[in-house]
Design goal:
Chain lengths: ~650, ~260
């Protein structure tokens, strides 16, 4: 494959792969832990396997422009398949691996998929379950042969078969792939990602090579990423963030991606790899901190004292030291000592010793949580973006970190705020179109070429973007005061005991809330107080737990009083739900965002009870278990009133 | 199914066992064929565990003999049984609670280790190579049972269901040809039971291991076993395919209760 190494030519992912195989062929491109040992692939090996995969697909009749679905955990071969498909001018379409068969059905039908590449037996079974409804489906390829011995259906193939076929094909037609790669253009669609569908049916977002490579280059320059970074690839491949960090940026800069052994071993693998570049949604950071805190409570007295003393130093000046600000000499010295005794070992336990840059996004992160990580010297930053913008709109520059903003517009991106507060963005990273939905495309991109994000936000005095809520969610209370539900829910979720919250108040007299407790944190709290419980439903019904949550909500009300327009949004009444909101019951999206309208409809009887002043309400709910069985959960929920605060300068 | 049930591999002939005046087993005979899943059921105190203990030589029966692959044993002992490829799990988990999962599984490889104590102590030459090979085998078991995430966790800290799985793993690490399972699903919830069933069927299917199991959950027994032997007060009252046993009136009155 003769390619010039000039940057202009590196405008598609297959060309980038060939480039890396030439300039850093011996360097590790991917790692995966298998049978307890980290196995690695060099860039040369990756290029070789991608060639075999692509030629195998060509042999099986894969066509230019066709979609190929990829379903599974993060595995090297799954990433390689993306590039193999791109080599042939096709479009890889990663799906969420934990989606149930019926959720997959819609996407597979919509995208007219003929080829599906899945990870293992579990995913093959899912595809077989809906196979009868998929007339177009022709081939199912699988990566892990375990348990597949008895699958003799002729359209199911081991990926090794495909690669063996590809190698033979390549010997017979050595120029085919070179020609195919040369025929590709930067404006071809490189990937299709379905939006998680907070509203309506999922839409296929078509993004070009140019868009993703621009976003990846911009981000890499912004954070000075090099080919020596290590990243742990553990977030769903169907999610735009993983595609940017684990695929596009790795392809642009040539750094190493590391695939964990299984979803349960991520923490151990994180420690073993010690990534230098890390991405996690806020809930991962939150879980880590909760675990640390729980373990600290069980630690010996000396360790506890030491931990708390040095964490006080870190809270005082750790974040400032990271930002390069001036700090009293005494604190600076204490911080060095603390790093030796507490922060260093702690970072090591978390697997974060080598991190240069860590990002979080996807949901708001609590200020305490954010500050905790920064104060122990982890350069945690926030970013803002959507599937439609390659997860690339705003980034927080080093040294200019504010917990309540998402930073400044990223290189090459233009951001402006519409009159209704909606954030509009423009740049090379925008989507090409929604698949088969010109109406939706026209709706999302306005006449001047701006993409309408649907988020409401504002710029602060330093030019940092602050996100308030979804533009369409911002409503009004009955008295006309502004009501931003997500803002309130995030405030609630910042408390470690509250896992999920759903508030109601649009066009109503007052704001009320549903709460999901965090079974880990509250369970531990209950154990320490000797409160016995049998499970989530039981724990959620304890009056001690109600009192605990009430305290948190009162604290939120106290804060809201001081926030001008939002003072009227104080939460008057709340209840603790008898079950955890779950994507399997359609209450959350796969990315764990609350489906507000669905929840409101499903639990209408509870909302009525909240607003009619009742002190308890019986409810029975159908639940879906992980294996697809149905069950029922019933409970008599207590409803509590919360203390609210009078607004200064107004008669109570 | 690709597995084929073969010849009789283990044959128990007229086994009687008593402790003082208590007759635990009276004149029991049954056989186990290669690659089959053979269940032993019966009410509490029927002598099921005693039966397993006789097979792997923990108890010596006063009468009767055991024929293993044509070889006659009137006195079996646990060492001989293990050498002959019989491994087992225990009703009340018998793992080293303070050791992690890998080390517990490595103990399952003990019989196969050739290097001597001194070589092992210095972890030198052949001892090192050998341990690496055994560790690789243990990793296969870990992968098979999907317990990668608890590799380095001390067994005592694991929940009960996982401990049971590790117990099975230790037995599998021996690469047994006959696996004795003493109530592998006792005390488990439905989901854990389903997992365990899956693993037992997979072991049988993929490695062709012959399995003799004691289980209380009738649904499980009837579902996964090829043949069932029923004990009551130390006597055999039924033997045959699950459906035949289910229809046997003597079994119904003794074990399932008259209402079934």
């Amino acid at each position: 494959m003769a390619e010039s190494a000039s940057p202009q030519a590196l405008d598609t992912f297959p060309r980038l792969l060939i480039h890396h195989a030439q300039v850093r062929g011996g360097k590790t491109a991917m790692r995966e832990k298998d049978l307890g040992i980290w196995q690695s692939w060099t860039w040369t090996a990756v290029a070789d396997e991608v060639r075999a995969l692509a030629c195998g697909l060509a042999e099986m009749g894969f066509q230019r422009g066709e979609n190929l679905a990829i379903v599974g955990d993060n595995r090297p071969r799954m990433y390689m398949m993306m590039t193999a498909v791109q080599c042939l001018g096709g479009v890889p379409l990663p799906l969420y691996q934990d989606a149930v068969a019926n959720e997959m059905l819609f996407v597979l039908l919509d995208a007219e998929v003929r080829f599906v590449f899945v990870e293992d037996q579990e995913q093959v079974d899912k595809v077989l379950e809906i196979q009868a409804q998929l007339p177009q489906l022709e081939h199912v390829l699988y990566d892990d042969p375990r348990g597949m011995r008895h699958y003799t259906l002729p359209f199911i193939h081991d990926i090794r078969e495909l690669m063996a076929m590809g190698r033979i094909h390549n010997r017979n037609h050595p120029d085919l792939l070179t020609g195919e790669v040369a025929a590709g253009s930067a404006d071809d669609v490189s990937v299709m990602l379905y939006t998680s569908g907070t509203t309506g049916k999922p839409k296929g977002v078509r993004l070009t090579h140019h868009a993703f490579i621009s976003a990846a280059r911009g981000g890499a320059e912004f954070d000075h990423l090099s080919a020596d970074e290590d990243i742990l690839s553990y977030l769903p491949m169907a999610w735009v963030g993983d595609h940017l960090f684990s695929f596009a940026q790795a392809m642009v800069t040539g750094f190493t991606i590391n695939c964990p052994e299984s979803a349960e071993t991520v923490m151990t693998d994180l420690r073993e790899i010690g990534p230098t570049y890390y991405f996690a949604p806020p809930r991962v950071f939150e879980n880590l901190l909760t675990q640390v805190m729980i373990r600290m409570e069980d630690a010996s007295l000396i360790k506890q004292k030491m931990f708390h003393a040095f964490m006080a130093v870190a809270r005082r000046s750790g974040a400032e030291i990271l930002d390069g600000q001036r700090v009293p000499l005494a604190d600076r010295l204490l911080y060095v000592l603390g790093n030796l005794l507490v922060y260093g070992p702690l970072k090591n336990v978390l697997g974060m010793s080598r991190i240069r840059v860590a990002y979080t996004a996807g949901a708001a992160i609590g200020p305490d949580l954010f500050r905790f990580y920064r104060s122990i010297g982890i350069n945690l930053k926030q970013l803002y973006g959507q599937t439609e913008t390659c997860a690339y709109v705003c980034l927080q520059p080093d040294g200019e970190i504010k917990f309540d903003s998402v930073g400044k517009p990223a290189p090459g991106v233009e951001v402006k705020i519409a009159d209704n507060g909606e954030i509009l963005v423009k740049g090379p990273m925008l989507l090409k179109e929604y698949y088969k939905r010109p109406d939706a495309t026209a709706e999302a991109i306005n006449a001047e070429g701006y993409f309408m994000t649907g988020d409401a936000g504002l710029f602060d005095d330093d030019g940092h973007l602050k996100i308030i809520d979804r533009a369409k969610d911002v409503g009004k209370l009955a008295n006309g005061a502004m009501y931003a539900p997500n803002y309130l829910e995030n405030k609630l979720k910042f408390f470690p005991y509250i896992k999920e919250a759903v508030v109601f108040g649009d066009r109503r007299e007052m704001v009320c809330a549903f709460i999901n407790i965090d079974i880990g944190a509250v369970g531990n709290w209950a154990e320490r107080r000797g409160i016995a419980y049998s499970g989530y439903t039981d724990l959620a019904a304890k009056s001690e737990v109600h009192a605990l949550i009430q305290e948190s909500i009162e604290q939120v009300n106290g804060e809201l009083v001081g926030e001008g327009a939002l003072a009227d949004s104080q939460i008057h009444r709340f209840l603790i739900l008898h079950k955890e909101l779950d994507p399997d019951d359609d209450e959350l999206t796969r990315t764990r965002k609350v489906r507000r309208n669905f929840v409101a409809e499903k639990y209408a009887v509870l909302i009525d009870a909240l607003y009619s002043g009742r002190s308890s309400q019986f409810i029975e709910t159908a639940v879906k278990f992980e294996d697809g069985r149905q069950g029922k959960v019933a409970a008599d929920l207590a409803i509590r009133d919360v203390k609210t605060f009078g607004i200064a300068g107004r008669a109570a | 199914m690709s597995r084929q049930i073969g010849e009789v591999i283990l044959d128990l002939k007229n086994v009687s066992l008593s402790f003082g005046g208590v007759k635990a087993l009276t004149d029991i005979s049954f056989d186990v064929r290669e690659h089959e899943i053979r269940a032993i059921i019966g009410p509490n105190g029927a002598g099921k565990s005693s039966m397993l203990n006789v097979i792997n030589g923990v108890y010596r029966p006063q009468q009767g003999e055991i024929v293993l692959r044509g070889q006659h044993f009137s006195k079996m002992n646990p060492y001989k049984a293990a050498k002959a490829g019989i491994s087992r799990t225990f009703q009340n988990i018998a793992l080293f609670k303070g050791m992690n999962v890998i080390d517990n599984l490595m103990t399952g490889r003990n019989l196969k280790i050739r290097s001597n104590l001194i070589q092992q102590a210095f972890w030198w030459g052949p001892a090192r190579r050998e341990e690496l090979a055994h560790r690789a085998k243990v990793e296969e078991v870990i992968d098979f049972l999907e317990i990668q995430h608890i590799r380095k966790t001390p067994v005592g800290r694991l929940p009960y269901g996982l401990q049971k799985r590790v117990d099975l793993g230790r037995a599998l690490a021996m690469e047994p040809s006959i696996l004795l399972l003493d109530e592998p699903m006792a005390g488990m919830n439905v989901e854990e039971k389903q997992d365990m069933c899956r693993f037992i069927l997979d072991v049988n299917d993929q490695f062709g291991t012959t399995i003799v199991l004691i289980e209380h959950d009738m649904a499980v027994v009837m579902d996964i076993s090829d043949r069932v032997v029923v004990l009551d007060y130390g006597k055999k009252i039924g033997d045959g395919a699950p459906d035949a046993v289910r229809a046997n009136p003597e079994v119904i009155s003794a074990y399932l209760g008259a209402s079934h």
